[in-house]
């Protein structure tokens, strides 16, 4: 399982420092040089399709590493 999480850490995408909820929008905006407000609006619009929008956000929040390289899902799995 560590190999999977290490491959996620090798990606240049991180949950961003400008966080409102999980930092996913801030990380996407930082990676692509976009305005974080526009990314947040796009994410909110994607929530109109609940299965895709909310589900994708939760998966991203669980799998995208934070600035300190911690991954939420990996931390949860280590507890069990």
TrEMBL record:
<feature type="domain" description="Phage shock protein PspC N-terminal">
    <location>
        <begin position="13"/>
        <end position="66"/>
    </location>
</feature>
<keyword id="KW-0472">Membrane</keyword>
<dbReference type="GO" id="GO:0005886">
    <property type="term" value="C:plasma membrane"/>
</dbReference>
<keyword id="KW-0812">Transmembrane</keyword>
<feature type="transmembrane region" description="Helical">
    <location>
        <begin position="41"/>
        <end position="64"/>
    </location>
</feature>
<dbReference type="InterPro" id="IPR052027">
    <property type="entry name" value="PspC"/>
</dbReference>
<dbReference type="Pfam" id="PF04024">
    <property type="entry name" value="PspC"/>
</dbReference>
<protein>
    <submittedName>
        <fullName>PspC domain-containing protein</fullName>
    </submittedName>
</protein>
<keyword id="KW-1133">Transmembrane helix</keyword>
<dbReference type="InterPro" id="IPR007168">
    <property type="entry name" value="Phageshock_PspC_N"/>
</dbReference>
<keyword id="KW-1003">Cell membrane</keyword>
């Amino acid at each position: 399982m560590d190999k999977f999480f290490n491959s996620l850490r090798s990606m240049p995408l991180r949950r961003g420092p400008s966080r409102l909820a999980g930092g996913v929008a801030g990380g996407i905006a930082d990676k692509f040089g976009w305005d974080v407000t526009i990314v947040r609006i796009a994410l909110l619009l994607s929530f109109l399709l609940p299965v895709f929008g909310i589900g994708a956000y939760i998966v991203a929040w669980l799998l995208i590493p934070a600035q300190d390289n911690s991954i939420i899902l990996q931390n949860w799995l280590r507890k069990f």
